[in-house]
Design goal:
This protein is mainly alpha-helical. It has one domain. Helices cover 94% and strands 0% of the residues. The protein contains 3 helices and no strands. The radius of gyration is 18 Å and the shape is flat. The two termini are 34 Å apart.
Length: 68
């Protein structure tokens, strides 16, 4: 039950916090979001490679643990 509440709070925080910033400082928030999106687009290959490396590493390690 606690895990569900924590999960819901994190999900709501991902929406409520940017919304609150947008209400109080709309121009600054828009600039920050644009800057983040630009960074994300310029680094998308590195991010995808890191996610694939982590997922592959997890699968290899869990497979080795199950075999031994």
């Amino acid at each position: 039950m606690v895990a569900v509440i924590v999960f819901v709070l994190i999900n709501f925080a991902l929406v409520i916090i940017p919304f609150a910033f947008y209400i109080y400082r709309p121009l600054r928030t828009e600039k920050a979001i644009k800057r983040f999106k630009d960074w994300l687009i310029s680094h998308e290959r590195q991010i995808a490679a890191a996610v694939a490396l982590l997922a592959g590493g997890y699968m290899v390690i869990s497979g080795l643990v199950r075999v031994t």
